[in-house]
From TrEMBL:
Annotated source species: Polyplax serrata (Common mouse louse)
PANTHER family for this protein: IMMUNOGLOBULIN-BINDING PROTEIN 1
Name recorded for this polypeptide: Uncharacterized protein
Gene Ontology MF term list: protein phosphatase 2A binding
Compositionally skewed regions (Basic and acidic residues) per UniProt: 298-314, 322-334
One BP annotation, GO: regulation of dephosphorylation
GO cellular component, as recorded: cytosol
Region (Disordered): 298-347
Basic residues bias: start-end ranges: 335-347
One Pfam family in the UniProt entry: TAP42
InterPro entries: TAP42/TAP46-like_sf (IPR038511), TAP46-like (IPR007304)
Length: 347
């Protein structure tokens, strides 16, 4: 990023370089495609936070800002430092930490400090920041169609303003190659104003998230982790129910009327369910016959006729396997008289 002023002493140059590097790092983090939990991005976030904190210490030590001054009295090269609390607030929210409550409270302090300074320096004098924050917190749970439409239009308006502001920022940034103090000042004032709605929205979300973070913090304090709680919870097991399998809809209705507590299904329904579960092969599969074919009387009759024809062919051709099987059956009949089965203990 181009520097706005060349006539600076060594300390000022070091300060402006620190901030410019931190801002460039921040913008790269925002545009990054890395997962928010990735170690690389988390390392960059923490480094950027440290850089901005160091910049803050130097600003305080140098006494860059004084009380009872407005934005018109702040030099062009110092306007950009008013962004620091907002940048830190946004970065802290992105830190992956087990103590989420601490991150929320820290971020809340940064955003409120940013908005307080904006008001004190009269950067926006026509908007009451407290009222805007209250409006976000007092959104009714149930709204009529007119209220919903108004809310939607308001969101669209803010979205449009946000896009226009981003486009203007991009345009002004392209002009930063010139060491024009006025361009530099306008760029960072636009940047600051662009962060106002972002800060208000984040404060609203922080307020909503705090109860959950507090609950999780209390659970950890009691030695109960979320994972242990999930492990103790029994999984929802599908209860076993008796199923009466019927062949057609007529039987299904009869059984359903006679056994109202038993869920019944036809063979087709049973087969479709088993196919869906992957137990039975689908229609057209080469893995055996489907249930409908196995229970169809016409199919059964055709199978019997085919077996009879095959048996006759074996007799006519003196098939060795068939003759051996017939010989064994004759021997069995000779040694086992008819009626020699279970005689019910009678001699």
């Amino acid at each position: 990023m181009a520097e706005c002023c060349n006539a600076l002493d060594d300390d000022d140059v070091r300060l402006t370089d620190l901030f410019d590097n931190a801002l460039e790092m921040y913008e790269n983090i925002i545009k990054s495609d890395e997962a928010s939990s990735s170690s690389k991005l988390q390392r960059e976030i923490k480094n950027c936070i440290k850089l901005l904190e160091k910049t803050t210490h130097l600003i305080n030590a140098a006494g860059v800002f004084s009380s009872n001054e407005t934005i018109n009295e702040v030099s062009s090269q110092n306007v950009k430092y008013l962004l620091i609390p907002a940048l830190l607030g946004n970065l802290v929210l992105k830190v992956q930490s087990p103590d989420r409550m601490n991150a929320l409270e820290t971020s809340e302090i940064y955003f409120k400090d940013f908005l307080k300074r904006i008001k004190e320096y009269e950067i926006i004098d026509s908007i009451n920041l407290e009222e805007q924050e209250d409006e976000r917190d007092s959104i009714p749970q149930q709204m009529n169609l007119q209220q919903l439409a108004m809310q939607r239009n308001e969101k669209l308006r803010k979205y449009k303003e946000q896009k226009e502001a981003e486009a203007e920022l991009k345009r002004l940034k392209s002009l930063m190659i010139s060491d024009d103090d006025e361009i530099c000042r306008n760029y960072f004032l636009k940047y600051i104003k662009n962060f106002i709605n972002t800060s208000l929205d984040e404060l609203h979300l922080i307020k909503q998230e705090k109860p959950l973070a507090k609950h999780l913090s209390e659970m950890r304090a009691k030695g109960t982790s979320l994972k242990m709680q999930e492990k103790d919870e029994k999984p929802n097991i599908r209860p076993l129910k008796p199923i009466i399998i019927t062949r057609n809809e007529v039987q299904k209705k009869v059984f359903g009327a006679g056994y109202p507590s038993l869920p019944t299904m036809t063979v087709d329904e049973f087969y479709r369910e088993r196919v869906a579960e992957g137990i039975f092969p689908a229609h057209g599969s080469s893995h055996g016959k489907v249930l409908q074919e196995m229970t169809d009387p016409e199919v059964v009759k055709q199978d019997e006729e085919r077996e009879e024809i095959e048996k006759e062919n074996e007799i006519e051709t003196d098939d060795p396997n068939y003759l051996e099987k017939a010989r064994r059956m004759d021997e069995f009949k000779d040694t086992h008289k008819r009626g020699w089965g279970n005689r019910m203990n009678r001699s």
